[in-house]
Write a structure and sequence with these properties.
Blueprint lengths: L2 E7 L2 E6 L4 E4 L14 H23 L3 E13 L8 E13 L3 H15 L1 H8 L3 E10 L1
Parallel strand pairs: 5-6
Antiparallel strand pairs: 1-2, 2-3, 4-5
């Protein structure tokens, strides 16, 4: 896997993935940015949500669960007054909806993602971040 990050001036950077997709990262105005894109640490958090959501949807599909939506709401805490200001805690809350979803399958999918399949979650937790998960099932 490869990526390229190019400076765009001030504290703005454009990143391009090996598959050709781009994102803009920028800082807030009080740190020399113009708020033209997500902060770099926000992209880490979003990547975690995407990685884990992919797993949950995939596992539920294999279990023949009729999923119509899956939303991952993430909240994170960072070390205060420290440099680097690393993540210390991250919580992922999945809101899954569909037809006749079985709670045991949703619970299992979230657990398997957290403990076995989500590379991002496992990497962060091995690095000392407390990563927790929860879920809600909504009927459609």
């Amino acid at each position: 896997m490869k990526a390229v990050v190019e400076w765009q001036g001030d504290v703005c950077f454009q990143a391009e993935s090996g598959s050709g997709h781009t994102i803009v990262m920028d800082g807030p105005p009080d740190h020399g940015g113009q708020n033209r894109g997500a902060r770099p640490m926000e992209t880490v958090l979003m990547g975690l949500g995407g990685c884990s959501s992919f797993d949950v949807v995939h596992i539920l599909g294999k279990a023949r669960q009729d999923v119509s939506t899956c939303r991952c709401e993430l909240s994170a805490e960072r070390a205060e007054d420290e440099i680097p200001a690393v993540f210390t805690k991250i919580h992922l809350h999945f809101v899954v909806s569909g037809n006749n979803l079985k709670e045991a399958h949703v619970k299992r999918a979230v657990s398997l993602s957290a403990e076995k399949y989500c590379s991002a979650a496992i990497m962060l937790s091995r690095g000392g971040v407390e990563v927790t998960h929860s879920y809600t099932i909504e009927s459609r």
